[in-house]
Amino acid sequence: MAHNCIERRENGFYIVGSRVPIDRIVCEYRNGEDAVTIQSHYPTLSLEQVQGAIAFYQSNKPEVEQAMEERRRAEDVYTADHVEAPAVKETFARMRRHPVTRRG
Predict the structure, then answer these.
(1) Within a 10 A sphere around the Cβ of 104, how many other Cβ atoms?
(2) In Å, how far from its chain's centre is CA 67?
(3) What is this structure's pTM?
(4) Which terminal Cβ of the chain has fewer Cβ within 10 Å, N or C?
């Protein structure tokens, strides 16, 4: 099931049929959130998709964590190249520190 919920794209892993990167799910999961709570932050995702993302992460930690690190480095390069936009750097940092708290 987990492999059916996740797809590899050029810049990381994403929930199939969405624009949600697995990074966001993993960050919330690492912060102690359960699947139901995480799903409530992403109303376009089903609980099964969130559970699949968590299962995929648990089964593929090295590969997922490497992709997450690559994304972080790409964000750092982008912010370094665009110093005139300090809000972008803060946005990336805030996204890493705090889970999304969108509620439907």
Answers:
(1) 7
(2) 10
(3) 0.72
(4) C
